Structures are given as structure tokens and as C-alpha cells.
UniProtKB/TrEMBL annotation:
UniProt xrefs under PROSITE patterns: ABC_TM1F
SUPFAM superfamilies to which the protein is assigned, alphabetical: ABC transporter transmembrane region, P-loop containing nucleoside triphosphate hydrolases
Membrane topology: Multi-pass membrane protein
Record protein name field: ABC transmembrane type-1 domain-containing protein
Amino acid sequence: MSVIILLRRGGQAPGSSVEHALAIDAELRANGAALLEENRPETQGRANSKELPKRRESPRGEWDESRLNCDVRHTQYVAPRDAVSGETIVWSLAALVGAYLLYAVTDTVGHYILERSGESVLLSVRSRLAGHLLRLRIPTLESLRVGDLISRVTLDSTVVRNAVGSSLVQILTGAITLVGTIAVMIYIDWLLFSIVILTVAVAASAMLLVMTRIEKASTQLQESVGALSADIERALTGVRTVKVNNAEEREHEHLTELAGAAFAAGMRAARLKALGNPAMHLAVTGSFVVSLLVGGVRVANHQMELSGLVSMMLLAMNLLIPVSDLFNGSVGLQQALGALSRIESTLELPSEDNDDIRQNVIEPAANSPRTTFHNSPENGYLALEFRNVHFSYDERKILNGVTFSVPPRGHVALVGHSGAGKSTVFSLVSRFYNPNDGDILLAGRSYIDRPRRAWRSEISLLEQNAPLLFGSLRDNLTYRQPGLAEDDLQRAIELAGAGRACRRAASRPRHPSRGARCSPLGR
């Protein structure tokens, strides 16, 4: 809508103020069409230096024509407000909705990729650890605590996953933001930037000292949790012994002490982290104050623009965000390094596969024929033979030149007092250990040139206290051969005289909490 400023010249207009207003209104109505035409964009250029056409004679007074002279250069044609405003609002809302949807999709996809990466790392670490633990040498396993090994698979791997899922991202985003902020600060004023970076560097050195101690405290925390897990596993495994000896209170006190040790280690890590936060804030605040003082002096001496000082102050305060991300991410990374050191030490433990590789033993293919002893009398091979075998646990001698043989068919009994070496013989036959000297032959072939898996595929071992693995009796009976046919399984049950026991077990209700379900052949 055009606005016309009427400048009154000359003497007083006749009549009252109401008459003056009516006269002006009549003049505007009479000249409205001409004014709009002059103010349109296509004709505005031609009207910039022209005056409005003279109005018609006013019936209400004698007015000087110069009173209504208006410079049309101060007028502008404006399109209808309703149409323009409505169209602008629609496009603005559409842009906002589109930006929000783009943010929502990007944020969702980013979080999913991040979580998937963390879970993939967790799966890889746990799978590798579980496979390595199952392949450890028996002497190595006997020297370690099972609960501690379990905590490395479960708890330590979770700490590493959290580092990948959050700590590394915090470090990356903080570093990018910090680099961008530093670049802008250098561009604005390198002198103030030098003061800021010097202050931050002093605090960062203190934070690095805290970081190294956080890693040590985190390692102690993981070890304390591992010891607690190991003792809980020991107490629950021998819970019958604990109860029959009325040792519940003693075990409870011992486990409480271990939990207290884990708590103390956790508090040490928490105190160190708490010390890092004020150092970080002090660095940023100190740099801000020093920059303000130095920058104020430079502005007063006309060595720096005030706008530049304001920008530097805002950037100095903005340093708190990336520095906080770097600190928190570094704390999580140090905790992960403590857990990772325990995982790496586990993976470095010697396994049976490494022993076979050192002996240059190549494992036969899965479909290779198994050794049979039906023709042993003809070829002269014995089922099993010990030749001058020597073995000791550390410095304690157990077997000293033991020699005996087992025929392909028949029964051989090993009789001796406790500690004579009966169980050691079975451990050597099962290749849990290797003899210090001498040789062991299976079907005429020495153990030296045979991998453990091929050797064990030719023997069967029934332990004195045979454990029941969690699952059905079918799972336990077919543990050696999971694909055993139904008829072969039934025949084995009857030959073992276990048919009645299996039928009786089938009639009992299931107890999922027990090691093996009562259903004899249920899957």
C-alpha cells in the first residue's frame, strides 16, 4: 500500500480540522488512480523525477498546488499482503518439516550404524575369546580361575564395546570441532589464540597425567570384578560342600570383601575422573579471562577491533564443548584399554592348536577314514602302548619309565594307591598333557606326528564324575556324535542298560534350572 506524505505550505487552511480532512480525502480519491499507475514497477522509473498531476479545483478551500506535491521516489508498489504472506508461510513450514525429517532420518541411521558397529565389535571379541578359551591347554586352564575368564568374555568385552560405541565418537567429534574453532581463532587474531592455546595446554598436561592413572585404576577394577566372579563360581560349584560344612557365612564374608575391593577400585577411578573435570573447566575459563584482559588492552590501543574481541571471547567459551568431549571420550578409552589389556593377555595364552602348529602337524580332512583295530592282530599293532613314559607336574615326578600295552580286545585295569598316577595315565592318553620323555602309540602311530583332534577321534573317555551338560539327555548321549540316528541311539541306551532309567526320567516333570533336562530324548 502506498503512503503519501502531505506537506502543508502557506497559510492556514480554511475551516475546521474536519473540513481539512474531508478535503484531503476528496483529493486522494480523485487522484488515486493516477498515483497507483505512477507507482507500479513498470512505470516507476519514468515517474521518479515527475511530480503528481495537478489536482482538480477543490471545492472546499483555496489550496496552493504545492501543498500536495509528493516525491514519488518515496513511494513503492507493494503486492497484496495476504497472498505473499500465505505463500511464504507455506514454504517456510515445508522447509522446516523437510529439515526435521532429514535430521530425524540422519540421526536414526547414524545411531543405528554406531550401535551396529559396537555390537559387531562385541560379537567379534566374544567369539574369538570363547573359541580361544575352549582350545587352551589343560595346564593353562588349571592355573587360571574360571570365573575370571568368564568375566573377560562378558564384562571386559562390554567395556570395549562401549568405547567403540561412544568414546571414539566423542573423541572424533570433539577433535573436529576443536580444529575448526582453532582455525577460526587463528584467522581472527593469532596472538589471542596463542594465549588461549597455552592455557589449555597447561591444563591438558595435567589431564594426561590423570588419564594414565585412570587406565591403571580401571585395570584394577576389572581384576577385582574378575576375582569376585571367580569366587562366586567356586562357591556355587561346590555349594553342597559349602552347605554341609555350614560355611555360608564365611563364604558370604569373603565375597563381600571382594565386592568391597571392586568398590574401592571403582571409587579410585571416579575420583580421578572428578579431578579432570575442574581442570578442564579451569583451562577454558582461564583462557577466557586472560584473552579478555589482553584483548581489552589491545582494543583500547586500537590494535584490534571490538568485533574481533567479541568473536574471540565466544570462540574461547565454545572450546568447553569439544574439550569436554575429548576428556570424556579419553576417560572411556582409558577404561577400554584396561579391559583390552586383559583380553589380549587371554588371547596370548598358549593353546593346543599352537602346539600342533609348532610340531608341523597337519590335521586330516573331516571325511578321512577312522582307524579301526579289527585287523590289528594281523598287522601286529596294539590298541594302545606306553613306551618308557616319564611325566611330572612341575618338579613332582609322577611317572618314571612306565611301559604297558592294551590289546585291541580285552580289559586292562590300572590299580594303585592315591597319587600313583592312574589319572595321569588317562590324561596322557587323552592328550591333555604330553610326556616329558618316552612315547605313546595309538594303533601303532606315535602321538608326536598326530594332531590332537585326530588322536581324540579314536578314543573315548568316561570320567569318574561324568558331568551332565545343560540340555536334554539326548544332547548328552549324542555329545560325541550329534548326528547319531535314532535307532543307533536306542540301541546304545539298551546296551548300556539305561532304558529303564530313561523311561523313568521321561515321566518326571522338567526342571529347566538343572544341568540336564529330565526328558531322555527330548530336543
